[in-house]
C-alpha cells in the first residue's frame, strides 16, 4: 500500500505526481505482468545469459547500437 504524505496547502497535482513516482518505483505493474504467466527458471537464466552476451558484444565493439 502506497502512502503519500501531503501538506494541507499542497496542490492535488503535486500529490498525484508523488503517487505516480512511488507507484513506478514500487514496480507493481512489473510484478503483475510477471505473475500472469509462469516462466521456467532455465528460460529466465537463458535470457539473462543472452542479454549479458549482447551487452558484452556492444562493449567490445562487435555490434554497433
UniProtKB/TrEMBL annotation:
Name recorded for this polypeptide: Small ribosomal subunit protein bS21
Q: Name one GO molecular function term.
A: structural constituent of ribosome
NCBIfam families in the record, alphabetically?
A: S21p
What InterPro entries does the record point to?
Ribosomal_bS21 (IPR001911), Ribosomal_bS21_sf (IPR038380)
Q: Which UniProt keywords apply?
A: Ribonucleoprotein, Ribosomal protein
A Gene Ontology BP annotation from the UniProt entry: translation
Query: Which gene codes for it?
Result: rpsU
Q: Mention any one GO cellular component term assigned to this protein in its UniProt record.
A: ribonucleoprotein complex
Q: Respond yes or no to whether keyword Nucleotidyltransferase is given for this record.
A: no
| Protein family (similarity comment) | Belongs to the bacterial ribosomal protein bS21 family.
